[in-house]
Amino acid sequence: MDHLVDEFCVDNFSEDALERSFARLEEMLRTEFARIKTDEDRERFRLRWVGRKTGGLTRLSAQLAGGRPELKRVSGKLFNTLKQRFQEHYHLWELNPFSPYALAREAIDITLPGTRTLLGAEHPIIRTMNEIVAVFQRMGYSVGIGPEVETDYYNFESLNFPPNHPARDTQDTLVVANQERRPLRDRLLMRTHTSPVQIRTMERQPPPVRIVIPGKVHRNDASDATHSPIFHQVEGLCVGENVTFSDLKGTLDHAMKEFFGAAVKTRFFPSFFPFTEPSADVQISCIFCGGKGCRKCKHSGWIELLGCGMVDPSVFGFVQQKQPDYDPRKISGFAFGMGVERIAMMKYGVSDIGQFYSGDMRFFKQFGSGGRLA
Amino acid sequence: MKVLTEWLREYLPGIPVDDHKLAEDLTLRGIAVDGVFDLGAGKGSLLEMDITTNRVDAMNHYGIAREASAIYGLALPPLDTSVPRSAATQESSTRSPYPVRIDAPDLCGRFTARVLRQVTIKPSTGLRAERFAGLEQKLISNAVDATNYVWIAMGQPTHVFDLDKLEGGIVVRRAHKGEKLRTLDGVERTLDADDLVVADEKKALALAGVMGGWNSMITAETKNVVVEAAWFDPAGIRGTSRRHGLHTDASHRFERGADFNAAPVASALVSRMLLADGGETDGDLVDVVIAEAAARTAHRAPIRLEVSEVRRILGTTIEAKGITTSVVESVLTALGCLLVLRSEGVYDVTLPSWRLDLEREIDLIEEIARVYGYNRFANTLPTFDGTVVELPWARQEEKVRSTLLALGWNEALSSTFASATDAVTFAPQPASAVAMGNPLSEAAGMLRPSLVPGMLTMLGSNLNRNVEDVRLFEMGTVFRGTTDHVDERPALAIGASGLTAAEGPHQPPRPLDFYDVKGSIEELFSRFSGRSIYFDKFKPEFHLMPVWLHPGRSARVVMDRSTIGYFGQLHPAEAQVRKLKQTVFVGEIYLDRLYRQPLRQPVTRELSRFQAVRRDFSLIFPNAVRWSELEDALMGLGIEELVDLAPKEIFRDRKEEKAEYSLLLGTVFQSPERTLREEEVQNYSERILKSMGQLGGRLRS
CB distance A166–B255 less than 8 Å? Predict the structure, then answer.
């Protein structure tokens, strides 16, 4: 080995020379240590100094062993000090809390799932109902509600369902017990639609009126996959001077585009409700196939969504008993209503309406947080 | 209702479109076709119709053909009502007609009778049999089939009596109370004094307008018959139909208002069909008309229609010229109205006898819109100068919902009804639950006085499905009062079981406990601005806590001195009744009371610049000493600098039944004005220890 080029070679002809040489090596140790940035640097550092075959200190040890005997005590001491410095530096690396080495020891498996504080799920019916209401609120509608137990007058008579009229057959009614002896108009029943709130609202305030009515309703119907005796409706009423059938069309067309997206089209066709005239059913172009026809729309391209119509003058006639301003020769208006369950079932692909009322956590969780990430 | 397009085309030969287009055109004009089924080459299609209840005139082929004639601008040929008259009839025109008497003119407005003799009763063949096969209508005999054929053809129900079973002429009268009649379905019926019957001089023959009688029915031996075609008052028929639970094709039509002028037409059609198989007429048609009934139906006074009113209601059309007088005239004329122009844009409109649903100007406006086509109107938006208001408690309701959702509670909806047993157990006041008159089921006999039973049902069904971690809430209406007056209030129920909500492998799961539920309630109430809130319970012997709660693990929530609700662990006895093995927590909050509190409006304080000093006290207390007592005592010391205190750790050795528990009490002292000196803090600590000592506490050695 060429002593002249080996940095680890020392001048060992005198004590002074040895001390200078060792001071140089210690300086070199410090400089090299300061340059260590990675584990690989550190390993190279170790091999260069103390590697079994290549280590500088190994070579130095051999050189000193062949040196002058009178200097061996001093050189041995200096050598041990240097080796100790190396060890200190080498371990200092491990002790540095910010060293990549130390930080690597704190590494964790970041692919394990996070600890999620699960949010609860909003009920899909309430959520859908609130979304529909919000669309109409943005269009200037106030929110109105009314009692779930209604009188025959508000649920039927004032909405132009006369006593004994066949139109009442379409809404099988759940009635409160012991009503037989009371006058028909006062008899209590579970409201079969949210429409009584139209009457109650108009009785309370003169025109103009713009109101959206969310609520729970009941019918004496057997349950099956698409029918529930308990369900929800959102209804709307707009009354004032010069409110027309084309306004009804425009309002619902705009609302459906807001709710389902701008590409949705609406079409109207005649229907019958005792409290509106003209009455209409409204279809929207199928939101699944865009109107081309698919299984969801029974290949028609259209989905029936709501009922509506111009407020029947006789409804205004009932209201006029309390609010004379509802003169059907001067004011007009429209009303519309839709079943929330139907819309929610369509929107979320629910096939059994009963799931909404099951309280089944497995069903609700699909609407909440905690789901798998896509 | 089923309709054959081949039959429609017989009545209106010029229909210019195929069956599918016809179905679509009808549907867009309110005569809804639900399905079109091809019957094979040359046989046309079967249409499955869904005719709205007001359009009884369109519940037959001729009526639908009339609609098609209005759509396509075609003239609808009248039906052939000629009846071959026998020689005997022609000779005997002076003979007295078959006796018919209407004793109940309020219920029967018109009654026609025609006697046919020497008829042959046999099975139907030919076109009638083919069409019935297409419609899946049962064939019975030529006489009965003729009556069915005619209502399917043009809507008027008729009936054929075996003349030889009749004693004397026909009397249309109210039934005697308790009178017996065996109807065609074989059921012996006891009649009511409000039922209308077609009778002879001795006995009731038929339930008028609803169903014929057994004794006078057509049999293979029948030789001579009377053909009945009549007009009955809708309300009367409806009453009888409902009273006897008998909904028939005839009652369906009469109770919606039949065509007053259709009886002679139908009588002729039935008679022609029967006579084609043999026999002859005996005398002319007997037609008894009640003038008042005719005035209410066929001869109604004309109604006034203003074109300006049509435009005021209907608004803007896509085509610029809008609803013109010519549109108004052509639509209404095609539907059978007679228009007389009174002045510019004002008509007197005489209404057709078959459209009793048309009574007012608005009804005509609807007809104009309908036939013109709804989709030819523009989409416009109304102007509005009113104000927009929210429900007074909308923000509170939203806050309750969003807070619970954020805390991991899932929203549920349950039945509005409860069983009688549950109503007793869960009603906040005794005997306040309201019964239903026609409940959906026995388990739904009462309006729910509380949301808790519904919540327990939902909890139970989850646990039964081995879904064990459940956290649900429901916001809904609860009902109380009497069957004369029902009071509705908004309420909130919560229900939970299983493990705490956080999910993942990094923290051991922990069973949910009372304090988790209480914590959610505290969080919820912290969003409201009540000045005071506390939790307490009554001693069991007072019987003031709900019976469904575990007396030792439940609490009442009081906000500003008003009871807002109760919650806690379900009473083990109630859990056993419901077969719930798991520990279940439930509660009910009276939202009407909570909503009286405005939402909390944050108000900030100046933050102290001076250091806070923490002192923890490790104390031992007798088991009977409750935290609220410690808290009250500490607050009662009036140390302004005591800015926070909290129980940091509690240890109770349940196994060894120790009479004491240890508590680590954490306190924080801070002054807004200065740094606290050591002696001051020392002084506070001593006062705290003294106060705790008075409650039986001591420092842990």
Answer: yes
